[in-house]
Amino acid sequence: MQGNVVVLIVALLVWALLFLYLLRLERRVKELEKR
Amino acid sequence: MIWRIGLGLWIAGGLVAAFLWAPLVPVLEETTRVLYFHIPTAWVTVVALGWSMVHSVLYLRRRRMEHDHQAAAAAEIGILFCVAATVSGSVWAKAMWGAYWNWDPRETTIFFLLLVYGAYLALRSAFDDEERRARLAAVYSAAAFVAVPFLMFVVPRLYFSLHPDPIVNPRGKLDMDPRIRLVFYAMLVGFTGLYFWMQSLRVRVARLQRRQHET
Fold first, then answer.
1. SS (HEC) of A1-35
2. Which pLDDT tens digit goes with each residue over A6-23?
3. H-type helices in chain B, by residue range?
């Protein structure tokens, strides 16, 4: 169970990083489209 | 923006449910959880390569660069998800079969698929003239997709494989615990949403690059 929680936290962290990267990219693309 | 936040929470919820709520399959034990990542990535690979084929055909009919952007983006993302499916499958194979790579029919066919679409990217990078590149890439992509159903669904079933049975068994039924099924479908939907978000971003970047190139 302890190992599961550690792997889950790592998986959530990886997903959060990817998600934030995509959000940042989305914002940047929107800015460039407005120019 | 709201649907993107919803997608983020949806996949995060799927991960939590996969680790803390869904039961394990007796034979697979802890490796059961790879199911919620490996199959959705393989599914998105087929969706993306199919999307690439559809837009390649549309490009050949209408000659609009928008279709070329869509086809190229879909192939790039399809390859990315195919690599993710291959890596997650290899990690699972190490745990279950004792080696990362065994040249099992499924491993061999996914390797060929990567070669076929790797060649698509090589073909695209070989031409500077965008009309010529778009035309040849569209012909290649439309033809290459013919191999996808054979490599993903037909060939692995023709030969003996250690790979677990497909999710939908030969009787056309889903042999799954209802909780596993729910998390599995949720991840399938989540990954499909993630693919279309990535596709939209890549196409918009391609449009911006084209606009910059023209000015």
1. CHHHHHHHHHHHHHHHHHHHHHHHHHHHHHHHHHC
2. 999 999 999 999 999 999
3. 2-20, 35-62, 65-97, 105-125, 130-144, 147-149, 155-158, 178-214
Chain B residue with minimum CA distance to A25: B201
ipTM above 0.90, yes or no: yes
What's the pLDDT tens digit per position in B149-168? 888 777 777 776 667 765 55
Nearest to B19 among A4, A15, A25 (CB): A4
pTM of the model: 0.90
Q: Which of B84, B104, B95, B110 is nearest to B194 (CA)?
A: B84
Contacting residues of A for B3, CB less than 8 Å apart: none
Instruction: State whether the Cα torsion A35-B3-B9-B15 is positive or negative.
Output: negative
